[in-house]
């Protein structure tokens, strides 16, 4: 019995040591530094498949893309925050980078991806992004990176009130590059994610000019939209206040006019009553004088 317990203890300690070592090697204690600056990738052309659903289901798309181009960097573009958006409604684009910079992608390679159902799209080069890196040593590095990097990224963006979206992951050279563009965010949205234009959108676009960055912020997380909302609320409150004040002035004016009219009518009515009373008194005085006159004449007779 003591030998069996000691053997179990040795196995347990050895298992804990192996798991801990594997987690550390996967990046559990790796330093996470979030920066704002130039992106680690330039203008790129990607092949991708669009997925709407829980992000845990995108692993199969990574494997499929890597099987066609095993030497190509993999890329994932994530458009929704799974903490705020239900899993079935989360959207992402997963695939590979087929060219970067001024290089042109191979037509044969593109044809292979298109045959497998992948689409082609290009991302522009931007000057400033929020970026962080994490070691990609094992398959567990992806999970550890999600739990360690994304909280730092979101905190960094909120503290500085930045408008950074969508979140892009690039896998190459043993590193996972996390990128969030600070400009031209709308150009990083694949056609499956972009909303269809409607008549209301066209009307709103005609009313607003020179607000490209704010409209792009509304496509994604909307981290830096609080100022614009507050300003719009302030403008609307001021406008509504001015409308209320003008309406109050108009109502007071109408009330004063109605009062003046009522006083005028009341005054005219009193004048008519006074004139009527004067006419009646005159008639009575005439009748009295005539009766007195007839009385005098009768006495003389």
The CATH architecture name of the largest domain reads Alpha-Beta Barrel
Instruction: Count every beta strand, where a strand is a DSSP E run of 2 or more residues.
Output: 8
The major β-sheet equals:
8 strands, antiparallel
Shape designation: globular
Order of helices and strands: HEEHEEHEEHEEHHH
Say what the CATH topology of the largest domain is.
Answer: Multidrug-efflux Transporter 1 Regulator Bmrr, Chain A
Low-pLDDT residue intervals, each spanning 5 or more residues: 198-215, 218-244, 288-301
Rounded Rg: 42 Å
What order do the helices and strands come in, and which of them pair?
Blueprint: H1 2-25, E1 35-37, E2 44-52, H2 59-68, E3 74-78, E4 91-100, H3 107-115, E5 119-123, E6 129-135, H4 140-159, E7 167-172, E8 175-181, H5 199-207, H6 212-217, H7 226-300
What does this structure look like?
Residues 258-291 have a biased composition (Basic and acidic residues). One of its GO terms (cellular component) is endoplasmic reticulum membrane. Residues 199-218 have a biased composition (Polar residues). Residues 233-245 have a biased composition (Low complexity). With 301 residues, the chain is α+β, with helices and mostly antiparallel strands. It has 2 domains: 28-195 and 211-217, Alpha-Beta Barrel (Multidrug-efflux Transporter 1 Regulator Bmrr, Chain A); 228-301. It has 7 helices and 8 strands. It has helices spanning 2-25, 59-68, 107-115, 140-159, 199-207, 212-217, 226-300; strands at residues 35-37, 44-52, 74-78, 91-100, 119-123, 129-135, 167-172, 175-181. Strands 1-6-8-7-3-4-2-5 form an 8-stranded antiparallel β-sheet, with helices on one face. The longest helix has 75 residues, at 226-300. The N and C termini lie far apart (165 Å).
